[in-house]
Design goal:
heterodimer, A: about 400 residues, D-Maltodextrin-Binding Protein, domain 2, five-stranded mixed beta sheet, 16 helices, B: about 300 residues, Rossmann fold, Alpha-Beta Plaits, 2 domains, six-stranded mixed beta sheet, 10 helices, about 35% helix, about 30% strand
Chain lengths: ~400, ~300
């Protein structure tokens, strides 16, 4: 077998046997599943009481004579406030309200209850509102009264520039999916490239490096590590994507009324994988360079923060990316290799990206991967055997010139 | 064809030349000693041979060619800085490093078990590296170095950290390599190991060649003109002897320029001294080193 592939296989096997890797890979789907199950069970656990509760009212206007019941609540009429108050104290009713004689002009009602609360319960508000509406609209067609109680159910449909129904519709789903995807992508990139950095540091510390180099070239060594860890990261991403798809179907089935139908656009899946690979490779070659000049794994980690922070930048521009995808700043961060993966994933989720922008972004990423790989190998060759000493910037620049 | 051909290599870090214009050749079937004090440039020279670092100028050929991926498979290298993956077992380490030298798993297990058996470590083969003692780890490192039956074996400070039993085991290995026609480069600052094993040596100091060639002829070249003698009776004055140095029961007789040990022996016999030991004094490598480098050595 080719030596690069042997190294890659070794790295892959070592990584997927790491406890931390296994835990991280299954933690996300597991946590999401747990969350979903909890969300599904909690409403069932709080059993609605079957006891009918009564709310009293005093009608001073004289038109609210049609009492109603909703769920386990029903309204009872009292002729005087004194009677209602006694009933409340005796716990025959849970609360009462007065519709004052000037209600028609003010819309104000007075509610009396024994409880301290921020605002009346939803069910209480609904029954009172519906009761008022039914009585105010008395004499109208029953269907019209029903409509007046819920006059507006919006169904929004996004159209494309040519007037057809767009494949991606807005809504909660449109925000949450790109957001979750970009976070997952970021974690996957950081995990895999972090392992690379750690691996390089460890091999320097445990001195395996020199033995490896007696069998393979520095280029083969770095390429093998990058490929092996990349495949491990890809396994992680695929596990996440597959389970995300499954979990989202589950969530859509249970909570479609709240969040709408969550479905992952296929384009997002495809580019999710493409940008994971490119984003990972870019971070990996950067980390290889960082790992080459830092004498220990710990120092490497500290230095790598310089490069991991910019990856997160697009998350801060989320609002801008969502509302002004065509702005110059968004274009720029689509093209800068270090911010491109997250930006593109978010843009794909919110709207469409012109094909040329995608092509340019991918091309720039690929070219920088090759360029930085060559640099990383040079740095690696120069500094890998300098145990315990970190070169300063001048030395690094000089070594580029000499290499 | 030489196993290794080094022509005028030079390596500088900053303004300091770590290796300065070194040239030497290594023949098949010989043990070649690379000696010098700490910091002389031995490890840098070896790393250049291994193409781990590149010389600033000069040229190195292995088996007549520049080092390639394929010819790396012909070399076994034991670096001065030892290292193995702590989490792997002995046999997993052997298989992995052998695979990087182009060996298949079956052959490497077979050979690995044979070598482990010789080192009396076969029962530990599934132990993780982190569970081993330092000396055991060293021996595993040696086995990993020679697992692929290399034609050229480079050992950087091979005896450091080994106990006497394992030192003997390694010396036996090294002699076997020679008898199998392999070349061994042994780098150390411990001159007596080199003296015991080497056929030819290169002595360097501060990156420069100090001595190079056949160990026996180097020793005879640096022989001081003196003889160790043990005797019975009275020595008295002897013609050609300029100084007598007493070492316990032995006396060292320093001869003048015209007197050879042969003439001295004749003189002793003529005087009727009963000689029980008569030995030409040969200097140790250590003494030669001090003599050659002299005040230049820090």
């Amino acid at each position: 077998m080719n030596k690069t592939l042997l190294l890659a296989k070794h790295e892959l096997l070592i990584t997927i046997r790491r406890r931390a890797f296994i835990i991280l890979t299954i933690a996300f789907p597991l946590l999401a599943l747990l969350g979903l199950l909890t969300a599904q069970t909690i409403p069932n656990m709080v059993k609605p009481s079957t006891e009918i509760e009564q709310i009293g009212y005093i009608d001073e206007v004289g038109i609210f004579n049609e009492s109603i019941s909703q769920g386990n609540l029903s309204l009872v009429s009292f002729s005087t406030e004194e009677d209602a108050k006694n009933a409340l104290i005796d716990k025959d009713i849970i609360e009462y309200f007065i519709i004052p004689s000037d209600y028609i002009s003010t819309g104000l009602i007075q509610r009396y209850s024994l409880k301290n609360e921020v605002e009346p319960k939803g069910t209480t508000q609904t029954i009172i509102r519906d009761f008022l509406l039914s009585n105010l609209l008395k004499g109208n067609n029953a269907d019209v009264i029903e409509r007046a109680k819920s006059p507006m159910n919006i169904a929004s449909i996004t159209l494309t520039g040519t007037g057809e129904i767009a494949p991606q519709q807005g809504g909660f789903a449109a925000i949450i999916i790109p957001y979750i995807f970009s976070i997952l992508l970021m974690i996957a990139i950081f995990t895999a490239s972090g392992y690379l950095l750690q691996g390089l540091g460890e091999e320097k510390e445990n001195r395996v490096m020199e033995i490896l180099l007696s069998s393979v070239s520095p280029g083969q060594l770095l390429a093998g590590k990058i490929i092996g860890l990349g495949v491990a990261g890809l396994v992680q991403v695929i596990v996440w994507l597959v389970s995300a798809n499954f979990l989202m179907r589950m969530a859509s089935a249970s909570f479609s009324n709240i969040i709408g139908v969550l479905n992952v656009p296929p384009l997002l899946l495809i580019f999710g994988v493409i940008y994971f690979i490119l984003g990972y490779l870019f971070m990996a070659v950067i980390m290889a360079g960082v790992g080459s000049i830092s004498p220990t794994a710990r120092e490497g980690q500290q230095m790598s923060a310089l490069f991991t922070i910019p990856v997160v930048i697009p998350i801060y521009f989320m609002a801008l990316i969502m509302e002004h995808p065509e702005s110059a700043l968004v274009k720029v961060i689509t093209f800068i290799p270090i911010t491109a993966p997250i930006t593109v994933i978010m843009r794909l989720g919110f709207s469409e990206i012109p094909v040329w922008e995608l092509a340019v972004s991918i091309l720039i990423l690929m070219l920088s991967i090759v360029g930085f790989f060559v640099l990383a190998v040079k740095l690696f060759r120069t500094y890998l055997l300098m145990y315990g000493k970190r070169p300063n910037l001048n030395e690094i620049i000089r070594s580029f010139r000499n290499a | 064809m030489f196993s290794v051909e080094v022509n005028h290599i030079l390596k500088a870090y900053g303004n300091r030349a770590v290796v300065n214009d070194l040239s030497f050749d290594i023949n098949p079937g010989e043990i070649f000693g690379l000696i010098g004090p700490n910091g002389a440039g031995k490890t840098t020279t070896i790393r250049m041979i291994m193409d781990i670092i590149k010389p600033d100028s000069g040229e190195i050929k292995i088996m007549g060619k520049k080092l390639t991926g394929a010819s790396k498979n012909e070399i076994g290298y034991l670096p001065e800085e030892r290292g193995l993956y702590k989490k792997l077992s002995i046999i997993e380490s052997i298989i992995y490093f052998a695979s990087l030298k182009g060996m298949d798993t079956r052959t490497s297990v077979e050979r690995g078990e044979k070598l482990l058996k010789r080192a009396e470590m076969l029962p530990h083969k599934n132990k993780k590296i982190e569970e081993l003692s330092r000396g055991m780890g060293q021996i595993i490192q040696v086995i990993v170095t020679i697992i692929h039956d290399p034609k050229l074996i480079i050992l950087d400070e091979p005896f450091a950290g080994l106990d006497p039993v394992n030192t003997q085991l390694l010396k036996d290995f090294i002699r076997e390599f020679r008898s199998e026609g392999k070349s061994v480069i042994m780098s150390t600052h411990r001159m007596n190991d080199i003296e015991e094993l080497s056929d030819r040596i290169l002595m360097i100091n501060k990156g420069r060649m100090v001595l190079y060639g056949d160990l026996t002829s180097i020793k005879s070249k640096y022989r001081s003109n003196s003889v160790f003698v043990e005797y019975e009776g009275e020595l008295g004055d002897i013609a050609g002897v300029i100084e007598k140095r007493m070492h316990n029961k032995t006396v060292e007789l320093m001869l003048d320029e015209k007197t050879t040990p042969q003439i001295l022996l004749g003189n002793l016999v003529k005087k009727g001294v009963a000689v029980s030991r008569f030995e030409l004094s040969t200097p140790s490598l250590n003494e030669i080193f001090i003599k050659v480098v002299g005040d230049g050595h820090e």
